[in-house]
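Quick log. Single chain, no ligands specified.
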Amino acid sequence: MPWNVLASRALKAKPRIPDDTRIYAIGDVHGRVDLLREMFSAIDDSLATHPIDNVVHVLIGDYIDRGPNSRQVIDALIERASQHTMVCLKGNHENYAVQFLADPSILSEWKQVGGISTLRSYGLQPSIQDDPGMRQDMAAAFRSALPDSHLRFLQDLRLTFSCGDFFFAHAGVRPGIPLVEQREQDLLWIRDDFLLHEEDFGKIIVHGHTPAKTPDIRSNRINIDTGAFATGRLTCLILQGDQMAVI
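-> predicted structure:
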């Protein structure tokens, strides 16, 4: 995949990160391990061509649900993290999976946003029945099928990451609230109040959660969710110094 340099005129000023650091920020994967592996290969190619010592992979959340290979995505992320510095943020879909283990009653809600695909990727076959006993049994089966390394991965996900003039969160932030005081509910779920806000947030917010046809570059935010599970397009934003590009 070639580098496509983003037009700096889309931004009012050139935000930056430290010159000795490069960030590869990857949008919502949603079970598309094929696209994730292709992206890792593209990142490896870019590192071979343009090496730098301090590299951080930032994953913006929503690794599971909808696409067919949620389990394999988590395997791939864990493997990659053994070789590279990784920051994996929590998405609302990972939140569903963890909540389901503690509160099986949310299964119906999780199913509506693609949770069945995740359960099936762990070898489970959710029943069309939807009663309390079935939900309890499915939660127990999910916990049994979930490797301890996957449970730790899901439980250890961070809500935010900040570097230089950029702040990373899955869905966005609540306008008017300092970045260090943002609530988890907003970081995982916010949409219109964030997306329609045109003023400065204090830093450029890099986020996913709301699919766009192409990376959406605004003066105050950058959306890198390009609907991979449905479109086959997974986006990676590269940041270094005051330069940015996509692969």
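The chain is about 35% helix and 20% strand.
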